[in-house]
Amino acid sequence: MQDILIKRVTNVNADFKNLVALLDQSLAITDGDEHGFYDQYNGLEEIHHAVVAYLNRIPVACGALKKWSTTAVEIKRMYTLPEYRGRGLGSQIIAHLANWTKELGYTRMVLETGKRQPDAIALYEKNGFVRIPNYEPYAGMENSVCFEKML
């Protein structure tokens, strides 16, 4: 039996920062020439609510919330180590982030992902997110796909 723990952390948590560094390395390849544009919106300074998923005490996945408006948060920094994908960790993180969003008094979650990330798109659609027009700063970005979920 695998022991999964999802722990609430902040942007200074070492496990969260290490997973985000691996995410950024992956996105630099996936995003190609557009990575600089996307990277500027992925700093950790404004992220105060993050989670790390531990599988048998090993940090294997993460996700975070960033205030987007008075009623909505933006999901940021979703990542699962490649060797742990396909185990439902992303869905568990989304569920945990949705509960935390409600606890914080927000009623809507939004997010942006890339068209070159079909697994991410499938994950969000499977978890009840619907596509919306690209919001700023992603409006007009051909690679971007934006989603929302009402809570």
Strand percentage lies at: 25-35%
How much is the average pLDDT?
A: 93
- State the major sheet: 7 strands, mixed
Number of strands: 7
What does the overall shape look like? Answer: globular
Structure commentary:
This protein has 151 residues and is α+β, with helices and mostly antiparallel strands. The protein is built from four helices and seven strands. The protein has helices at residues 14-31, 35-39, 89-103, 118-126; strands at 4-9, 49-55, 58-67, 72-80, 108-114, 130-132, 144-150. A seven-stranded mixed sheet has the order 1-2-3-4-5-7-6, sandwiched between helices. The longest helix has 18 residues, at 14-31. The termini are far apart. The mean pLDDT is 93.
Topology:
Elements: E1 4-9, H1 14-31, H2 35-39, E2 49-55, E3 58-67, E4 72-80, H3 89-103, E5 108-114, H4 118-126, E6 130-132, E7 144-150
Parallel strand pairs: 4-5
Antiparallel strand pairs: 1-2, 2-3, 3-4, 5-7, 6-7
